[in-house]
Amino acid sequence: MSHLVYIDACKSTNEEILGYLGANPSDYFALFTCNQTQGRGQYGNTWDIEAGLNLAFTMAIKQQVHLLPELFNFRTAVLLAEFLAKMAAVAVDIKWPNDIIIRDKKVSGILTEKKNINSERYLIVGIGLNILQTDFSKLPKAGSLLTQTGISFKPKQVAAELFDFLKEGFARHISADETTKAVNDHLYRKERISVFELNGVRQNGIIKQMDGEGYLWVDLENDGLQRFFHKQIQLLY
Q1: Which residue, of 89, 120, 180, 212, has the fewest CB within 10 Å?
Q2: Is domain 193-235 given the CATH code 2.30.30 in the classification?
């Protein structure tokens, strides 16, 4: 069984969905809004959306053996990149570890969590997707589907199609090696000279790959080839 619920507004869809799961023990349950007021991003960051123009979407999946929790964030990123590429007919990149990039602008972010509800284990995936917003004067690295593709998508329709796409995608048995390869196929700025910040110091480097444990390998100008976990290094441009 599966359910998709629309709500007019909420503080955070990742928090809101928890109240539904006890009464709706579905394998796949999702809710969305176009007016989220206190959204959360990865590592305590915030994700604010402009009311009516963008999408805040959260899906709860009963944890299954073939869904590897340690790579779930990356599995989600691959599915979201594939969905947007198909829908908008545009190249989509994954900025390690959890941002979705179209033509060098961030259009989406992902927050994944694990929760136990009534003795059931769930994987929770929250997605913030900029759809119709055009003013990013305060967020120069951000964009929307409209600004990056020129296409006006309807947020509610996007949510319905995304729900179906994710259900089908999460139901497929994909190995850790296949997930890692898919991330590397979409990896933003791979094999291109970029500027990073490490321990407060900027230096050039080249992203080489993401490994099977989710670490990013970067060949740094000053420090050579090293691997990094989330938040240990920042890609600036």
Answers
A1: 89
A2: yes
Which pair of structure tokens corresponds to residue 193?
A: 């000279």
Work out the angle at residue 218's Cα, subtended by the Cα atoms of residues 212 and 221, and round it to the nearest 5 degrees.
165
Q: Is the peptide bond before 97 cis (omega within 30 degrees of 0)?
A: yes
User: Environment class of residue 223 by beta-carbon count within 10 Å: exposed (0-12), middle (13-18) or buried (19+)?
Assistant: middle
Contact criterion met (CB below 8 Å) for 80 and 104: no
Run of H or E residues at 194: strand 193-198
Q: With contact defined as beta carbons under 8 Å apart, do 209 and 184 qualify?
A: yes
Residues contacting residue 167 through CB under 8 Å, at least 6 positions apart: 2, 28
Helix H or strand E encompassing 93: strand 93-95
Q: Are strands 54-62 and 120-130 parallel, antiparallel or unpaired?
A: antiparallel
What are the pLDDT digits (tens) for 72-120?
999 999 999 999 999 999 999 999 999 999 999 999 999 999 998 888 8
Domain boundaries, the chain: 2-186, 193-235
Q: Indicate whether this model's pTM tops 0.85.
A: yes
